[in-house]
Amino acid sequence: MNMSLEDIGWNAQFAKEFKPYAKKGLVPARLIRDNKISYGALLEGPKELEVIMSGKVYHDADSDAELPAVGDWVALELGDEDSDHMIRARLSRQTCFSRKAPGKTSEEQVMAANVSVVVVVTDAGADFNPRRMERYFTLIDRSKAKPVVLVNKSDLFPEELNQSAKEEIEALNNEADVHITSAAYNEGLEVLKTYLRRGVSIMLIGSSGVGKSTLVNQILGEEWQWTNEVNELTGKGRHTTTARELIVLEEGGILIDNPGIREVQMWTDETTLRESFADVELIASQCLFHDCKHGSDKGCAIRAAVESGDLSVDRYESYLKLEDEVKELNKRREKRQMVTERRAKRDHRIKARNLADRIDHQKRQNPHKY
């Protein structure tokens, strides 16, 4: 099929930013796969190439999060049989879905760039976790994408349980579209296809085994991701996606499938956090004292709301836990920045000494020039 840049997500904003690169003879491409050492890149046509990152792009990045990622648009220098196709620049991201990288690091991990809709896949059984869903919503809100949730595997659970999970998720975020689906029986998937329009990128996330790969297979109409039956003891599928990949659909739209997420750790800021918990913030604003600790302080509106049942204990505890994580992450960021600045100053001193040594050496070798 013929495919234009607009079919894979190009728009006027990208085109405007790309003009200086076009004058240099570079071509636009979208990254569809991260092969660790190289990338898969899609060009107009369509034409898929294996490309690598230039040293300048790598060294100009202040962190791994600024390096090219799946979904990014890049300025590409085309090679030939004797030279590699080279990424010379990454265009600005219009949206960016990221989390804190797993483990104790304070690094941001970009999961996908330039995504319009983030679809969280869960079920009403063992995977259902409202607290985890709050974390997903916080990250989606920060990314500026549209949140959609699929309560999948509805065929395995009673209708009442599926509906209860749907309503509980809707109560967490009134901006989210929540649908009950069964990928195994191809039920409810028509709602997902309504988001798949020309040039619109949709990202699928969720725990391993919730049916993301089966959803992809149903949409594509082929076994794109190998799947297997569900383990009766754990409720998990035996297959998990192992690589992040962008898939352009013939009917229009772009899918980004993701490996199962074991950790949903925060990469956000205080403003986004408070916006995600606007209901808690509104109650807190009614406390008698502005510095209320929401414990035994007199006139605490939070405590009163919990006691009256207007605010669930789980919701409030989740807010406090996320806030603690953000504070800890900020501390690690500051520490990392201090280390980076010290290293930069050290490198400048070394360069200055080396330059002075070279000049001194040249003076000794050619005194008549100085």
Furnish the topology, listing elements before pairings.
Elements: H1 12-23, E1 27-34, E2 39-43, E3 47-53, H2 55-60, E4 73-77, E5 85-90, E6 96-100, E7 108-113, E8 117-123, H3 130-143, E9 146-152, H4 159-172, E10 177-180, H5 189-193, E11 201-205, H6 212-220, E12 245-248, E13 254-257, H7 270-276, H8 278-284, H9 301-308, H10 313-365
Parallel strand pairs: 3-5, 8-9, 8-11, 9-10, 11-13
Antiparallel strand pairs: 1-2, 1-4, 2-3, 4-5, 6-7, 12-13
Description of the molecule:
By secondary structure, the protein is α/β, with parallel strands linked by helices. The chain folds into three domains: 6-90, Nucleic acid-binding proteins (OB fold (Dihydrolipoamide Acetyltransferase, E2P)); 96-257, P-loop containing nucleotide triphosphate hydrolases (Rossmann fold, 3-Layer(aba) Sandwich); 269-364, Orthogonal Bundle (Ribonucleotide Reductase Protein R1, domain 1), CATH 1.10.40. The chain is built from ten helices and 13 strands. It has helices at 12-23, 55-60, 130-143, 159-172, 189-193, 212-220, 270-276, 278-284, 301-308, 313-365, and strands spanning 27-34, 39-43, 47-53, 73-77, 85-90, 96-100, 108-113, 117-123, 146-152, 177-180, 201-205, 245-248, 254-257. The strands form three sheets. A six-stranded mixed beta sheet has the order 10-9-8-11-13-12, with helices on both faces. β8, α3 (130-143) and β9 (146-152) form a beta-alpha-beta unit. The protein starts with 11 loop residues before the first helix and ends in a 5-residue tail after the last helix. Residues 223-242 and 260-266 have low confidence and may be disordered.
